[in-house]
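How a chain folds remains the central question behind the approach discussed here. No coordinates are needed to read the tokens, only the vocabulary itself. For completeness, the protein is quoted in full, as a sequence line and a line of structure tokens:
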Amino acid sequence: MVNVYFFLISFTLLGAGIKYIDDAFDEKKFNKKIALILAPILALLWSYTMIIDQISATILLAVILGVFFKGKIDNKAHIIGFIVISSFILFIGINLMFLPLIMLIASVILDEVGNDVIEFNRGFLNEKRFCHKCFITFFDQRWLTKLTILYMVFIGLFPWYFFFAILLFDSAYLFVRMYSRPQQNLQPINC
């Protein structure tokens, strides 16, 4: 059995790395050359984390397919990472849990759609209204995917540490976002 701490550290690094790459290309906040170097390294870590564990493979494949189907693999670095991960999956193979995979892909896609709704409607959403504030928080921090993983933990399909791993993934992602955009005051909104 792989050490639990490996998954906690791996998911954290993957979340932070993905956001670094996003903000290097989308927000022009970080160095694109570093992002291009970082992409295959992250892809190797992503691939290894998928290869060694069926549950990790299910979660991480759901994340990558969800963002792929939503059109979020939209820069050179992400394309490089996607190609590296896809190559490992095709040549080495991974073990998956198919029903959880389908549920998680749907959750990731719905989280991405909700996040897009927030971004496109920031002017119309009143952060002082409780329901708007909760909607913004829920989809800004992609809670549907987290709750789906928590459900899998409760029914005994996933061990508890994968819920913490996805929390660390998203927390690292949000930390890098807050670091890269301090002037916009993008701290998480809590209900």
